[in-house]
Amino acid sequence: MAINAGNINEVELKSSLRKETVKSIKKDWQLYSLLILPIIYYIIFKYGPLYGNIIAFRKYVPGGPVYGTDWVGFRYFKMFITDPTFWNVFKNNIILSIGSLIFGFPLPIIFALLLNELSNGLFKRVVQTTSYLPHFLSAVIVAEIIMEMLSPSSGVINMLIKTLGGEPINFLASPEWFRPIYWISGIWQETGWGAIIYLAALSNISPELYEAAAIDGAGRWQQTVHITIPGIMPTIIILLILNIGGLMGVGFEKILLLYNPLTYSTADVISTYLYRMGLESNNFSYATAIGLFESIIGFTLVTVANYISRKLTDTSLW
């Protein structure tokens, strides 16, 4: 009887939640209607194209049937797994992504904490505004700024090097310089924008906690360690999970605009390799197989990171 009563209560709870949801939608239907366009966008441009992954298992010929002709199974997967070029590209992808995570992820947190300590409201707004403006620059503009600054003949960096008595360096033609350029430009472009989320999380921390800590004699550093950082830790963990899930997706546009055959050894990543294989070489099935492999790795990473986070911190995406 207890089991039956439990089942009845569960059914009643689900029915009550369903009624509350319908009631909420009817009440705020104008707000919910704003979801229509994003949902349509994701259906057309995100979920619809998923069916096209079938050509990773079929032989596709440009001008032929949209979903290929003959079934070839894992032929294209075996091709890239045994291709040394792919594994070099894969290695570059991992190095650039992990470097961006290590150097780029903590800086918005630190920057937000520093901004939060500013007492001058006007100065704080000016700094925050100027710091996140680079985020809105297109990849073309960012690439052009980088090329102008690093130009061997007229770039600011090389002019400074020559002033100090050194020899000009052709940064964009040197494989060893590509990764630092990519990381530094990413930090410059995204630090201010990333700090906005943490500033929003900081604003939700109760001022009473700081007042109580100050009464107990805690200094600013102690308040930061024991109140501020724990207060934004759920936000940090969620964003870290999302960043880990996006490790395989590096900045395709910026790399495409900055790299050249001289820097392929360190600059060529999966997305640019796919571009050359698919659009330039018309090997669409091979490119689709690599893209599907990349997506599976990304999904696995975010799932594992979410599982570990849930076990260790009780904070997770699902």
From TrEMBL:
Record has Membrane as a keyword: yes
Q: Quick one: a GO biological-process term for this protein?
A: transmembrane transport
Cellular localisation: Cell membrane
Q: Which GO terms describe its cellular component?
A: plasma membrane
Q: Does the keyword Membrane apply?
A: yes
- Where are the membrane-spanning stretches? 29-45, 94-115, 232-252, 284-308
A family per Pfam = BPD_transp_1
Keywords recorded for this protein, A-Z: Cell membrane, Membrane, Transmembrane, Transmembrane helix, Transport
According to Swiss-Prot or TrEMBL, what is its membrane topology?
Multi-pass membrane protein
Gene3D superfamilies attached to this UniProt entry: MetI-like
Q: Which residues form the ABC transmembrane type-1 domain?
A: 90-305
The Swiss-Prot or TrEMBL record describes its family as follows: Belongs to the binding-protein-dependent transport system permease family.
* Name of protein: Carbohydrate ABC transporter membrane protein 1, CUT1 family
> Which organism encodes this protein?
Mahella australiensis (strain DSM 15567 / CIP 107919 / 50-1 BON)
